[in-house]
Amino acid sequence: MLTLRRRVVDGRAFHLRVLAGLLFLMWAISGGGLHAAAQTAGKGPTIVVTFTVLHDLVRNVAGPQADLRLLVPAGAEVHEWELTPRNFVDLEEADIVFANGLNLEQWIPQARAVAGPGVPIVFVAERSGVPIRPILIGDKAGDPDPHLWMDARAAAAYVEAVRDALASLDPDRAEMYERNAARFSEELSALHAEMLEAFAALPPQSRVLITSEAAFGYFAAAYGFEHDGIWGINAEEEGTPQQMIRIIDIVRERRPAAVFWESTVSDQYVRSVADETKTAVAGPLFVDSLPPDPEKASYIGMMRANTRLLVEALSGPDASES
Length: 322
Ligand SMILES: [Zn+2]
Known about the structure:
Layout: H1 2-29, E1 46-51, H2 52-62, E2 67-72, H3 85-93, E3 96-99, H4 108-115, E4 121-123, H5 124-127, H6 152-169, H7 174-199, E5 208-213, H8 217-223, E6 226-231, H9 241-254, E7 258-262, H10 268-277, E8 280-285, H11 299-314, H12 317-321
Parallel strand pairs: 1-2, 1-3, 3-4, 5-6, 7-8
Helix pairs in contact: 2-6, 3-4, 6-7, 7-11, 9-10
The structure holds zinc ion.
Zinc ion is lined by residues 79, 147, 213, 215, 234, 287-288.
């Protein structure tokens, strides 16, 4: 069933890829990138954001007048996204583009070509000043891990980078960006404190977080978890026999109360690990995309949903026995 669905999705992805390629070619031939820099008075800038998590952070700073566009929709895989015809239009109309950077968006060179040389692309992770951690395992081990936003303090640093970029693009509204960022940063620091308090309920030996993508390095460091994944990052091959054998050994040794999958990947691999090790499965955790549920579809909502799930799943019977 899962395999079948995956095949259908792959077929569609292939057609979209061909379509995007053709569009890119047509755009290149027509001498594209003639970007209209002039902004209509009263209307905010046209801001293009690569993925949902960052979109929510930018939305909180940019205010209601901004024309905010999103490239990778909720639930979709950000690492290996293929630009759609709609993305081409949005990028051509952009005054500024916000991306995570650190190669989260592997397709950013194409986005840059479409947006044109006059349009700034702000890589917030790289501008945040947060110390970069390496990818833990797999083909890309040692490369920068792009998932900084899983630490709420890093998300606050993203907000400052967004504020500064918007203020220099649109100085008339600098004060508003400053105000919005200050208010939102307070909410983020309250969130960070709330999460620390929630996780304090978990004894240290229960704080073992095994996921599909090992995307929780920053999260684990911030909130006191030991972390590993089946694979290092979603841009590499997923669920190979070597990956499965390695993680099954670790689960047998560390005995977490549950193992987790994330919303943008298949749960089939983590279910095999769980079957093999007689461990509970819990999920989805949200990392690369906000939850689809409108009540949780914000950065703060996502972090709270993850916190609730982790506390619930890791306070399992194994935790109280050990
Ligand atoms: Zn990821």
